[in-house]
Amino acid sequence: MFDFIGNGSAFNTERGNNSAFIKKNSSMILVDCGGTVFHRIKQLNLLQDIKNLYIIITHTHPDHIGSLGDLIFYCYYILKFKPTIIYPNKDIITDFFNIIGVGDEMYELVSDNKVNLTAPEFGDLNIEFIPASHVGVIPAYGFLIGMSDNLVYYSGDGNKLPEKNYK
What we know:
Elements (H helix, E strand, L loop, with lengths): L2 E4 L12 E6 L2 E5 L5 H7 L8 E5 L5 H4 L2 H12 L4 E3 L3 H11 L7 E3 L3 E6 L3 E9 L9 E7 L2 E5 L13
Parallel strand pairs: 3-4, 4-5, 5-6
Antiparallel strand pairs: 1-2, 2-3, 7-8, 8-9, 9-10
């Protein structure tokens, strides 16, 4: 279901920051956008013909959102569309965008613990954020994503799996 742009950690930049994507025709779902990710997206030409970009954020460490502002600027100014940011804590993500100068007009924000949206070429997307044990200073999430007949759990940087059975 997902292809990975990077599977390194914050300090293993040779492998790129953790980030995954699903691309179908002119739509793409991206998970996290750390400091190395926008550069790799450009290198791999992943944004060619993209008109709908859905970015799911697991938490706000720099290796997960470090180049998110660059990607939003690129979509807005160069590609001429607003990406959709999906993150359950509206205050945290909007404060971050305000600090780095990303205006409200440059993106769409979907901020809820359970997200249901219809995405061109993906159909109905169901995303459920699940609090993850990572660090105490910022909230972190894994998530379930349901699309077509697939249900996938993406752990983000969680250090233990949730006990709930998601079959």
